[in-house]
Amino acid sequence: MALFDTLMRRVVRRGELTVIFADGTQRTFGAPDPEIRSVTVRFADRATPLNIARLPRIGAGEAYMDGKLIVEQGDILDLIRLIRAGQPFERGGELRPPNPLRRSVQDVRGRFDRLNWTRRSKRNVAHHYDLSDRLYDLFLDADRQYSCAYFTDPANSLEQAQADKKAHIAAKLALRSGQTVLDIGCGWGGMALYLNRVADVDVLGITLSEEQLKVARRRAEEAGVADRVRFELIDYRDVTGRFDRIVSVGMFEHVGPPHYRTFFRKCRNLLAEDGVMLLHTIGRMGGPGTTDAFTSKYIFPGGYIPALSEIVRASESARLIASDVETLRLHYAYTLKHWYDRTVAKRAEIEALYDERFFRMWQFYLAGALVSFEHGGMCNYQVQYVRSRHAVPITRDYMADAERSYSG
């Protein structure tokens, strides 16, 4: 237990964590903090503390999934918050030069998993998005927006925030009636249908998820716009034609750094000379990194969260002009809290769909993601691109005006 104790003394910097080991031994780390809920955990066997100490991220996740890490006071979100709150991204202190050996090891470790060849991309997407429709209905809003919402007020409902997200994005596209729009990674079709409804545009939505495709096509038929809002099962690399506007929400995380230049080159070739593109993606507030082992293994195989520098460097090579960049710092934390609370409230139904282990996996994933936006280095970037510097007005007033009209 010495290795585990060393780890806990290092990471528990705010709040109080009580650990009950399998032999009944009890230890307390840290001290009570009025802003951090105290947590008590119990280990079901002797091996789990050592497994966590050796590989903290995946070790803790798997122990929780398997019922070997039991949270007796608080819940798994409280535990992750307690661990992460003491080491926020914005923490003070002097910066030291990075360790080149550690960085090179991390780069090598993450490089292979970022190689999203076309055939592998479809498999990776299916791993996450071809789960039961019922699962997503249980924790998402009615429109199934599975990406960061936009909270004009932190107290807003999830439904309001997701509607405001669509208006926020639509406003940045500077849409005009009759234009053609490509939606790369269209999900269940909500954004494409919204753009058609509020701006009178024709949309092609593309996805690699067969389950999402079925739902999106059905929704277009039910709305009576299947002739104007089409959905196809196709990789972005295989799309042909020209589009006045391109939007991509929550898809870039699956592209992989080796393919960033290909992605932006393809987008530029698909975009009209006076076209506008809006990229909405989870991002890192620091430099390039690696995907943590738990997320890579259980949630998003092949996924990678880009640093802003990686996005801009790749798009520069395609001669796309980054005409507007916005950093959404807390919006995904608010979004994930809604998803987490709904998931916990629907525990029985999720376990009936899958099993208890799946529920704990999903709960751990959402809790970890939430805290990474509260205290870690995660954020969301919205980057507007144009091919021509004359494509949009020279001030941002048009965005605010359009957003008000769409939200009204």
Backbone structural class: alpha/beta
Overall geometric form: globular
Mean pLDDT: 92
What oligomerization state is this entry in?
A: single chain
Distance between the termini: 59 Å
* Rg from Cα: 22 Å
Poorly predicted residue ranges: 125-129
Number of separate strands:
11
Largest sheet descriptor: 7 strands, mixed
Order of helices and strands: HEEEHHEHHHHHEHEHEEHEHHEHHHEH
Beta-strand content bin: 15-25%
Number of helical stretches of at least 4 residues: 17
Account of the 3D structure:
The chain has 408 residues and is of the alpha/beta class. The protein is 46% helix and 19% strand. It has helices spanning 2-11, 47-54, 56-65, 76-85, 100-111, 118-129, 133-139, 158-172, 190-199, 210-223, 260-270, 293-299, 308-317, 331-345, 347-353, 356-374, 397-407; strands at 15-20, 26-31, 39-43, 69-73, 180-184, 202-207, 229-233, 243-249, 271-284, 321-328, 378-386. Strands 7-6-5-8-9-11-10 form a 7-stranded mixed beta sheet, sandwiched between helices. It has a 4-stranded mixed beta sheet with strand order 2-1-3-4. The radius of gyration is 22 Å and the shape is globular.
